[in-house]
Amino acid sequence: MAENDNGKVRILAFLCNWCSYAGADLAGVSRLQYPPNVLDIRVMCTGTISPYHIIKAFQMGIDGVLIAGCHIGDCHYIKGNYMTYKRFQVMRDVMKFVGIDEDRLRLEWVSAAEGEKFADVIKGFTEQVEKAGPSPLRSGWEKDPANWESIRNAFKPLETRKPA
Amino acid sequence: MSIKERARELLGGEVEGVLGYRIVGGSHLPQLFTAADIDGMAEDYPADERYPLTSIVRRLQAEDPGIRLAVVARGCDERALIELCKQGQVDSGCIVILGLACDEELAQRCGCAEPFPSEIMQGRRVEGVPEDPLVEKIERLPAEERLDFWLSRFGSCIKCYGCRNVCPLCYCKECALDDAEMVERGRVPPTQPAFHLIRALDMAGRCVDCGLCEEACPMGIPLRALFRKVGRVVEDNFDYRPGRSSEEKSPLAVLGTEKDLE
């Protein structure tokens, strides 16, 4: 992750522990190139992501939020991603109504074997968010745009902890 | 038979209390009546004095499970009871609904699509207003103007929590709006748009469009247009309308089947 990211769009990616995080790992060990402006938050299941977390991400000045989880039918908690998909639909349409570009939110299914897909998703989503530009919520209310560390800290309670 | 007559009859043994209104100083205020004081119950229901009686039902039942109550309910109150029942917040088996149809004036002013309960005991059924012109107006604005519109409206919020406190469907013991992580403490106007978006998303699959939030708002924030849109989003995506039937489950309350995702 780049430390000097001024001027670049910032993306927060919620990755499910079982599929997409492993997919991201595979992309890494396969030495696939993808943009470094992504902060990944590992969660046990995309179903644990509440709309609050997405609102919070945008409120903190994140330009795009990616949610990546297991394909439908592959959820390790059977149906966690069903809920993710339903929440995503509502979130996207409500964002549109309040004037936050709905292209800033994306839901993708990435399995542990799809390292290449993961890299492509990050590339594609970064382009999509760059097209939308920096978030209109980035400046204005928040005096200091939150830095990566404070964003990571904000989502710490949600994150899966690595085994000691 | 008027609501008051029926209430008196029910207090003969069927129910322990009736939730209605008493006139105090010229205003209608909610009150729980028993057989002893039912004579004091107001017989008319003015359009501009509405309260979430369903919230009182929920609290009374929480304190005293199994209490048998009758409640004066407009169309919106009935929808709220149905929704609260599905979410396990009230036991509709112990509730008798005394149906009150809204008059033309209130139906128009509220812009209500269904200003009558399923069984009308008092009042006459009038047709509802199907669409909200403000929702359509906002939808037609370009994206930046939509955001400016909402941020300027949200910016006038004085964080009185009136919208949440009056809402019949806001029953959480711990509210995200009280969470310092989500909404910074001691700052007015509150963190925006987070403050209002939290409520908007919580209302998905819940809001019964009673309009009490907008009525309670001292700053005139068009909350109803926001919650109506959220309601429409849920209806368009999942064909679910809160309070329509006690059989259907809210799509955001159950995991569902693969068919639900199509």
Structure write-up:
The complex is a heterodimer of chains A (164) and B (262). Chain A has 164 residues and is of the alpha/beta class. Chain A has one domain (11-158): Rossmann fold. Helix content of chain A is 38%, strand content 14%. Chain A contains five helices and four strands; from the N terminus they run βαβαβαβαα. Chain A has helices at 20-29, 51-59, 80-98, 115-132, 148-154, and strands spanning 11-16, 38-43, 64-69, 105-109. Chain A has a four-stranded parallel sheet with strand order 2-1-3-4, sandwiched between helices. In chain A, strand 3, helix 3 (80-98) and strand 4 (105-109) form a beta-alpha-beta unit. The longest helix of chain A has 19 residues, at 80-98. The longest helix of chain B is centred in the C-terminal third of the chain and has 16 residues, at 223-238. Chain B is built from ten helices and four strands, in the order H-E-E-H-E-H-E-H-H-H-H-H-H-H. In chain B, 35% of the residues lie in helices and 10% in strands. In chain B, helix 3 links the parallel strand 3 (69-73) and strand 4. Chain B has 262 residues and is an alpha/beta fold. Chain B has a four-stranded mixed sheet with strand order 2-1-3-4, with helices on both faces. Chain B has two domains: 3-110, no CATH class; 133-238. The chains are: A alpha/beta (164), B alpha/beta (262).
